Amino acid sequence: MTIFTRTGIRRIARYAFQLANTRPRKMLTYVTKSNAMRNGMVMWDEVINEVAAEFPEVVSYSDYVSI
Q1: 47 within domain boundaries
Q2: Would residue 31 count as lying in a domain?
Q3: Total number of domains in the chain
């Protein structure tokens, strides 16, 4: 069992965007499985989009994973 909190997800996302912001291309790709796991993964997408608004200079993309 895994517990996700908005605070924890925001901390991870903010770190990823800060790291991407230091790189020359300023790009971030996050991988999600929210199309199949609606209970927890959708919150990741929501929080990442909120944090992305704080970093307009970083271009972010999302990809779906299917395993």
Answers
A1: yes
A2: yes
A3: 1
